Amino acid sequence: MEEKKQVNFTIVPDDEGKAPRVYSNFCAIHHSPFDFTLTFCDMQPLTEREVQSAQSSGTVKAPVTARMVVPVQMVPGLISALQENFRIYQESFGPPKGGLH
C-alpha cells in the first residue's frame, strides 16, 4: 500500500508590477453552474444629461475595468477571506464611512 505524503505550502503571488492595479467602486456578480463572474466597474458621478437618460431608460452604463471568472469551488474560500479581512479592517479603522457598503 502506497503511503500518501502531505505537503504544506504557501502560495505567494508573483507580483513584479506586471498585473495592473485597477480601481473599481461597483461589482456585478453572476453565476453559472460552473463558475462565478465578478464584473468590476468604475462608476463616476453622472451628469444631468446621464441622469435624465437613466430615468427614461432605467439603465446606467459604466465602463468595465476588470472581469474575473472563478470556479464555484473557490467561492467559499473567497467569501471567508473577504469576511476575515473585513473584520480586521474594522478592528483597525472602524466601520466604513459612506454609502457604498
Task: Explain what you see.
It is a single chain. This protein is α+β, with helices and mostly antiparallel strands. The chain has a domain at 26-93. It is built from two helices and three strands, in the order ββαβα. The protein has helices at 48-57, 75-93; strands spanning 26-31, 35-41, 64-71. A three-stranded antiparallel beta sheet has the order 1-2-3, with no helix packed on it. β1 and β2 form a beta hairpin. The longest helix has 19 residues, at 75-93. The radius of gyration is 19 Å and the shape is elongated. The mean pLDDT is 90.
What does the largest sheet look like? 3 strands, antiparallel
Number of E-state strands: 3
* SSE run: EEHEH
Could you tell me the strand content as a percent range?
Answer: 15-25%
How do the strands line up in the largest sheet?
Answer: 1-2-3
Proportion of residues in helical segments: 25-40%
Tally of helical segments: 2
Shape: elongated
Low-confidence stretches: none
Rg calculated over all Cα atoms: 19 Å
N-C termini distance: 53 Å
How are the secondary structure elements laid out?
Elements (H helix, E strand, L loop, with lengths): L25 E6 L3 E7 L6 H10 L6 E8 L3 H19 L8
Antiparallel strand pairs: 1-2, 2-3
Briefly, what is this?
The protein has 101 residues and is α+β, with helices and mostly antiparallel strands. It contains 2 helices and 3 strands; from the N terminus they run ββαβα.
What descriptors fit this protein?
101 residues; alpha+beta; three-stranded antiparallel sheet; 29% helix
